[in-house]
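Bit of a strange request maybe. I'm writing a small parser for structure token strings and I need a real example to test against, not something I typed by hand. Could someone generate the tokens for this chain?
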Amino acid sequence: MTEETKNPAAVELGKLGGQKTAERGPEYYAEINAQRKVKAGGRPKNPPVATHAGTLEIAGRKIACAVLADGTRVLSQETFLSAIGRSPKGKGGQIVASPDGLPPFLAAENLRPFISNELRQATLPAVYRSLAGNNAYGYDAMLLPMVCEVYLNAKDAGKTTRQQEHIVRACDLLTRGLARVGIIALVDEATGYQAIRDREALQAILDAYLRKELAAWAKRFPDEFYQQIFRLRGWAWKGMKVNRPQVVAKYTNDLVYERLAPGILKELEERNPKMPRGERQSRHHQWLTEDVGHPALAQHLYGLIGFMRASDDWSQFYRLVQRAYPKKGDNLLLALPELGQ
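Reply from user aminoacidic:
Good idea to test on real output. This should exercise your parser:
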């Protein structure tokens, strides 16, 4: 067909479509290419089977989740995308990934400096058999907080675009919603899996935080943590070399170890018991692992210190802690007078 014989209206529509496609940018093209690869490669013949399924709600966003036969926790691809502010992609349930293995929501060039190798591994999508017997598509549950961290780090560095602002807002809401509640515990509770979770499964989580052998002593608690406790309690601060009131140890257990991860304080007390004179042979934090436990401790401590700086007294500070870092099994507290006295 020559240019002369083409329908003028069709030509204009074609030009308009080309413009719209160009405006969608590189993520759109990566998605189209990924869909073509999925169609060409087919689906796995024997996907893993889900043994438990449910729905968890974080910051008003409902996310379908499942636990697979091998213990892997997954979040449904469609609800995962909706939760971070993306329209669900992958028509017909197809898994979407960019040519280099990254999903489209991480494929933008401005995000790549903030993507770790660990995150790249976690973005590999999963195909599994749902409880209904259908093929389902999802991501490892740990991907959610890691994706949120990428967008928030990019935002802090001033690298996000105007088109990504709604995703940044969604990630901020999700991160605050997750607070210090582990995603593994959330999935287990939503699916009912915690009712049959054996000791070995819980121990695997604890061992990610705790050392098999005692670590060399290193200072982990900033001086300001204790200085702020004294300020908020109205006590005179005389420096770190002066013995602190014994109640400060109870505050440390309450504010830190009971909120760091489920079961951590109990496990620490078993591994690091009191001596006959009432003292412990080592400090609890010496049993935390370098790769997981210590970073988690540091993040938690600086979160507490931030609340301390923003508070005028102990009651105000403790209310903030109860809201942001509720203990395992505690109800979320609303504004109540004189907490933590």
